[in-house]
Design a protein that fits this description.
This protein is about 70% helix and about 5% strand. With about 675 residues, it is an all-alpha fold. Among the domains are: about 120-205 and about 240-260; about 370-475, no CATH class; about 575-650. The strands form 4 sheets. Strands 1-2 form a two-stranded antiparallel sheet. A two-stranded antiparallel sheet has the order 3-4. A two-stranded antiparallel sheet has the order 5-6. A hairpin with a 5-residue loop joins strand 1 and strand 2 (about 10). Helix 16 packs antiparallel against helix 17 (about 570-590). The longest helix is centred in the first third of the chain and has 130 residues, at about 95-225. One of its GO terms (cellular component) is cytoplasm. Keywords: Coiled coil. InterPro entries: TSNAXIP1_N. It comes from Asarcornis scutulata. This is TXIP1 protein.
């Protein structure tokens, strides 16, 4: 083929093609092998045209200058080739329309493909999102099915054991039936033999009686007919007859002696059936008696526990009467508290003297906090929390309690949303700082952090602030916060299920009925929940009602005021949660005895002793809270008992199974 040079004249390459004519019937798209000269060695020795070399050199330089690490590297590589093709089109005047049409068609096709790809990009993102959601749903379903499969396996094992017991019982009963059948068959055979022997005896007796009558008749006739018969012969016959009579009498007496106590079969079967009925009735009465005995023992135990509780309460009352001091006049505090007597009355309502001291200290600390303009920085040492690392003074934002509570609730909301999105739980101190930096900027983040921290530290009576502060400083685990919220949410659903009319109110009777299944739910979540604890919740739900009112607005039990303070009903649930965990750990401490240090095995044994129903996974979780190392290291490590109890108190530690019976002696003592 011929190439057009840059000097506007035809150049031949290869050189020997200059005198070569065009092939007849040549197809433009034929294979290059068909158009290649036969002498390939000569082709390789012929130099290329200068214009072709310039184009190739230009293409190599352009490709070297490209940055192929970018995302659109393929489009960048296409640009030099597009320019080379433009040069060809410009130089080949004759073929320029055809080549331009070819180029435009390729460009239109590439543009169409780009548009198609750009339109499919959102679909690709949507497919990825849907794929992730489906994967999460599949994992959730697998977890749910795994729990159901485990339950079915346990039920299968239980049924298999039950079947084995039934088979053993069936085998035992079959053996007894066979033994009784053999015994009945033997008795039946013996009775048949005796029955036949009795018939034979009666037949013999009849024959003997007939023979005696015949003998007498013959004797009378003999005397009349043969008066001269031999007396000796008659005497001998009489003697033999008397001997036979004696033998027959002996046999008759023996038969009477042997079969005098024999019972007829019909009477025997009747007595046997009557005996079976009496036996079943006796077993039924015995079961009723055992049930009544158990109920009696239960009532006796309850009576004993009640008596002990009464004695304990009486003892505590006497101690309180001896040790109590005159109650301070707390009304004087209203003179120094902002808001006057009305606000102090709301703050002091239903609180003990110790709690009133905390309220008073909180009010004083809050007032001093508002008067401060700056906070001293705590430095940037490793012991300083990450959200307080600052050198120099920090400005006080002077927030109200409502502002602090709103910010903390928003932090919890953002953190939970992030956990659901990523599937991982971020550490609260780092998330706390990142949230403030994201919302208020890096320069103001420390001002907000110090202000929020000091407000939370000085307001222990506010649940939102105190719980966030305890988790932020590491005093308690975050699991406690989520567990308490889950418990309250479950209780709301239970109460709503009892409200068939969806009116938001329940009568006292409905509340009692609703708390009956709720009692079962509490038993599963909190095995130490007692009858008086349930009664405390009922009393807390009627805290602001008159004794004559029957309707209870259960939705209002879960409301909070603008400062995040809950109603007494929710506060009682949270206080019972903490109290029951403390009782559980106190029982664990008593089981460890005088030990100063404890290893993993001793701690596991103590947990299994006080809580026999605890499962392996929960036990490993509790052990992990104490030792805070891998499972392969816990067997050799020992920690002080007090340290172990402090770490357990900070985590979500609860009883798994019901408490032992003897533990109920202290039921509600000190609650």
């Amino acid at each position: 083929s011929f190439q057009f040079s840059a000097r506007d004249h035809w150049s031949t390459w290869p050189a020997f093609a200059s005198g070569q004519t065009v092939l007849k019937n040549h197809k433009p798209c034929c294979a290059p092998e068909e158009r290649m000269p036969s002498n390939k060695q000569d082709l390789l020795t012929i130099p290329k045209p200068r214009y072709l070399e310039q184009l190739e050199s230009y293409l190599r330089k352009e490709l070297q200058y490209l940055d192929l690490t970018q995302r659109n590297s393929q489009e960048l590589r296409l640009q030099p080739y597009r320019e080379i093709f433009e040069f060809f089109i410009d130089n080949f005047k004759t073929y320029k329309p055809l080549l331009s049409a070819i180029k435009n068609e390729y460009e239109a096709t590439l543009a169409h493909q780009k548009e198609t790809i750009r339109a499919l990009e959102p679909l690709k993102a949507m497919v990825t999102t849907v794929s992730e959601e489906c994967s999460q749903q599949i994992l959730a379903l697998q977890e749910k099915e795994k729990v159901e499969i485990n339950m079915l396996k346990q039920e299968k094992q239980h049924l298999l054991k039950f079947i084995d017991n039934m088979k053993e019982e069936k085998s035992s009963l079959q053996t007894q039936v066979e033994r009784l059948q053999m015994s009945v068959a033997e008795e039946y055979t013996r009775y048949l033999n005796e029955y036949d022997a009795r018939k034979l005896l009666l037949a013999k007796l009849n024959d003997m009686h007939n023979e005696q009558l015949n003998v007498k008749q013959h004797q009378v006739q003999g005397r009349e007919n043969i008066k001269g018969e031999d007396v000796v012969k008659l005497t001998l016959a009489l003697k033999i007859a008397r001997q036979d009579l004696t033998k027959t009498q002996v046999k008759l007496n023996a038969m009477i002696a042997d079969y005098g106590d024999v019972v007829p079969r019909r009477e025997f079967e009747s007595l046997e059936k009557k005996y079976s009925d009496l036996q079943q009735e006796m077993e039924t009465l015995k079961k009723d008696f055992d049930q009544l005995h158990k109920e009696y023992q239960t009532l006796l135990e309850i009576q004993r526990e009640t008596a002990e509780e009464r004695d304990n309460f009486f003892t505590e009352l006497q101690q309180a009467q001896r040790s109590c001091t005159p109650r301070p006049n707390w009304a004087k505090c209203s003179e120094v508290i902002s808001g006057g007597a009305d606000r102090w009355g709301c703050l002091a309502e239903g609180k003990t003297s110790d709690q009133l001291v905390d309220v008073l200290l909180e009010e004083i600390g809050t007032r001093l906090l508002k008067e401060m303009n700056v906070f001293p920085g705590r430095g940037k040492g490793d012991k300083v929390p990450v959200y307080l690392r600052h050198v120099g003074e920090v400005k006080n934002k002077k927030l109200t309690k409502k502002d602090v509570v709103d910010i903390l609730k928003d932090i919890w909301k953002e953190k939970i949303a992030l956990e659901q999105q990523t599937g991982k739980r971020p550490v609260l101190p780092e998330f706390f700082l990142s949230y403030l930096q994201k919302r208020y900027g890096d320069t103001s983040a420390m001002e907000w952090s110090y202000t929020l921290y000091e407000n939370m530290r000085l307001c222990p009576s506010n649940h939102v602030m105190s719980s966030f502060y305890d988790i932020l400083t590491g005093k308690v685990g975050e699991e406690q916060y989520h567990m308490q919220n889950q418990l309250i949410s479950n209780l709301q659903k239970e109460l709503a299920a009892c409200d068939s009319s969806n009116s938001g109110s329940l009568t006292s009777e409905h509340m009692l009925c609703c708390l009956s299944p709720y009692r079962m739910a509490l038993r599963e979540a909190f095995p130490l929940k007692r009858r008086c604890s349930i009664q405390e919740l009922i009393d807390a739900s009627r805290y602001q009602l008159d004794s004559t009112e029957e309707l209870i607005d259960y939705k209002s039990l879960f409301r909070e005021d603008e400062e995040g303070n809950p109603e007494p009903f929710v506060a009682k649930i949270r206080s019972q949660y903490v109290r029951e965990k403390q009782e559980y750990l106190r029982e664990l401490r008593n089981n460890l005895g005088d030990l100063k240090e404890v290893n993993a095995e001793d701690l596991k044994a103590a947990f299994c002793t006080i809580d026999p129903d605890i499962d392996g996974q929960t036990l490993d979780t509790y052990i992990g809270l104490v030792y805070e190392v891998g499972r392969e290291q816990t067997d050799q490590e020992v920690v002080p008992v007090d340290t172990a109890l402090e770490r357990l108190l900070a985590g979500d530690v609860r009883r798994v199974g019901p408490a032992a019976r003897e533990e109920s002696k202290t039921d509600c003592v000190g609650e």
